[in-house]
From TrEMBL:
Pfam families cross-referenced by the UniProt entry: Transposase_mut (PF00872)
Region ranges (Disordered): 64-86
Biological processes per GO annotation: DNA transposition
The protein's name: Mutator family transposase
Keywords associated with the record: DNA recombination, DNA-binding, Transposable element, Transposition
Amino acid composition bias (Polar residues), ranges on this chain: 76-86
Similarity-based family: Belongs to the transposase mutator family.
Protein role: Required for the transposition of the insertion element.
GO MF annotation list: DNA binding; transposase activity
Signal peptide: none
Length: 424
C-alpha cells in the first residue's frame, strides 16, 4: 500500500512547491512593480531561468559530470563559460547564457545552434496567421504585446513551412463510406494581375461516429460547372471514398451531375437552410413572420405530395403574389429538395441542421475577411488550412458531433441505406 501512496504524496508535495514558488515570484513582482512580459518581466525571467537550467542539465549530460564534480578533473573536456543568445519565446525575446565546452563539441538540443526562436513562438505566429492577420498586423501585435521586432521574412518563412503540411493533408487517404458530405463555397479576393473574387470549395464529411472532418479545400474559377466538380469529386474518390449516402449542397452549378457520375447511388440534397435563407433574402423583413411558417409547412410536410400542396398554397397566397421569385426558387430546386421528404425524421434533422458546417464557414469567412485580399491562391489556402487546423484538432474531435442524437440518426441511416453502411 505504501508503494501506491508514495507517488501521490510526491505529486502533492511537488504541486505545493510550485505554488509556493509562484506565490513568491508574484509577491516580488507586486513589490517591485515588475511587468509580466518584456525585459525584466516576471514571465520573461522565469522563462530565462527554466531554459538556462535545462541547458546546464544538457551540458552535464554531454560532459558526463555535474558542475563542480571532482570526477570531471582530467576528463579531457570541461565547461568554458557561456555565450549570450537571444531567442524568441512565447514570453517574448529572452537573452540566455548558453554554456560552452572547451572542445567546442556541445550541441544544445533545446536551443539548437543558429536557432533564434523556440517552437512555441512559431505556433503563436501561425495562430495569428490563422485568424486572418496580415504580416504587418502580426509584426505590430508581437511588438505591442511582447516587445519583439520580427521581420516580414521570418513570418513568411514560418507560414511557408505549413505548405508541405497542407499538401500532405490535402492528399491524405479517406474512409471508404460516408453517411453525409456537405459541400459549400466561400468567395475570397485573390490578386492575379488584378484583384478578383474566386470561390474556394469546402467539403465536410460526417463519419460513422457523427464527427465532422474537413476533407479538402479547392480554389475554383468563376463560371465553374460539371468539369470543375468532376475534378474535385474524382480527387475525393481517388483518396478512398467509394460511396456517399447523402451529398448536401447549395445548388452549386454542375454538382448534382458530377455527384451521380462519381457515386451513382448517392442522393444529392439541396440544403434546406440555404434554400430558406435565400427565400428570406428575396422578401421584406416585415413579411418574414408570415413567410417562415409557410416555408416550414413545405419542408416539414410528411410526403412530397403534401409539400407540393403547401408550395401551391404559398404561390396562390398574397405572399406568393408579392414574392414570385421565392416560389420560383423552390420550384427550381425541387428535384434536389424532394429527396429530403423521403428521409426518416432522425435523418431529416441531421441533414437540415447544418450548424457544424456553418461554424466552420463562419471561422473561414472571418479569417479571409480580415485579410481583404491575398497575393496568390496558395496564400489563401494557407490561411484557410490553418483556420481549419485550429478549429478541428485531434483533442477536440470527440466534441465535434454533427447532432446531439447522432446514434438515433445512425440507426435510421442503417435502415434507409441498409445495403451500403456497415455498422460495427
Amino acid at each position: 500500500m505504501a508503494d501506491k501512496t508514495e507517488p501521490v504524496t510526491s505529486v502533492a508535495a511537488g504541486d505545493t512547491m510550485v505554488d509556493d514558488v509562484v506565490e513568491r515570484l508574484l509577491d516580488q513582482a507586486d513589490a517591485s512593480g515588475a511587468a509580466l512580459l518584456g525585459e525584466g518581466g516576471l514571465l520573461t525571467e522565469i522563462t530565462r531561468a527554466v531554459l538556462e537550467r535545462a541547458l546546464e542539465a544538457e551540458m552535464s549530460e554531454h560532459l558526463g559530470y555535474e558542475r563542480g564534480d571532482p570526477a570531471g578533473h582530467g576528463s579531457g573536456n570541461s565547461r568554458n563559460g557561456t555565450s549570450p543568445k537571444t531567442v524568441l519565446t512565447d514570453a517574448g525575446a529572452v537573452t540566455l547564457a548558453v554554456p560552452r565546452d572547451r572542445n567546442g563539441e556541445f550541441e544544445p538540443r533545446l536551443v539548437p545552434k543558429n536557432a533564434r526562436r523556440l517552437a512555441g513562438f512559431n505556433d503563436r505566429i501561425l495562430s495569428l496567421y490563422a485568424r486572418g492577420m496580415s504580416v504587418r498586423d502580426i509584426r505590430s501585435h508581437l511588438a505591442r504585446i511582447y516587445g519583439v521586432e520580427v521581420s516580414p521574412d521570418l513570418i513568411s518563412k514560418v507560414t511557408d513551412a505549413v505548405v508541405e503540411e497542407l499538401v500532405t493533408w490535402q492528399n491524405r487517404p479517406l474512409d471508404a463510406v460516408w453517411p453525409i458530405i456537405y459541400i459549400d463555397a466561400l468567395w475570397v479576393k485573390i490578386r492575379s494581375g488584378s484583384v478578383t473574387s474566386k470561390p474556394v470549395y469546402l467539403a465536410v464529411g460526417v463519419d460513422m461516429d457523427g464527427r465532422k472532418d474537413v476533407l479538402g479545400l479547392w480554389v475554383g474559377a468563376e463560371g465553374e460547372g460539371a468539369t470543375t466538380w468532376m475534378a474535385v469529386l474524382s480527387e475525393l474518390r481517388n483518396r478512398g471514398i467509394e460511396d456517399v449516402c447523402i451529398v448536401a449542397c447549395d445548388g452549386l452549378k454542375g454538382l448534382p451531375d458530377a455527384v451521380t457520375a462519381t457515386w451513382p447511388k448517392a442522393t444529392v440534397q439541396t440544403c434546406v437552410i440555404h434554400l430558406t435563407r435565400a427565400s428570406l433574402r428575396l422578401s421584406s423583413v416585415r413579411d418574414h413572420p408570415k413567410l417562415v411558417p409557410a416555408l416550414k409547412a413545405i419542408y416539414t410536410a410528411p410526403t412530397e405530395q403534401a409539400a407540393e400542396q403547401a408550395l401551391d398554397a404559398l404561390e396562390t397566397s398574397d405572399l406568393g403574389e408579392r414574392y414570385p421569385a421565392v416560389v420560383r426558387a423552390w420550384r427550381a430546386a425541387w428535384p434536389e429538395f424532394t429527396p429530403y421528404l423521403a428521409f426518416p425524421p432522425a435523418i431529416r434533422t441531421v441533414v437540415y441542421s447544418t450548424n457544424m458546417v456553418e461554424s466552420i464557414n463562419a471561422r473561414l469567412r472571418k479569417a479571409t475577411r480580415n485579410r481583404g485580399h491575398f497575393p496568390s491562391e496558395q496564400a489563401a489556402l494557407k490561411v484557410l488550412y490553418l483556420a481549419v487546423r485550429e478549429q478541428i484538432n485531434p483533442t477536440a474531435r470527440d466534441k465535434n458531433h454533427v447532432a446531439a442524437h447522432w446514434k438515433e440518426a445512425l440507426n435510421q441511416f442503417s435502415l434507409f441505406f441498409e445495403d451500403r453502411l456497415s455498422i460495427q
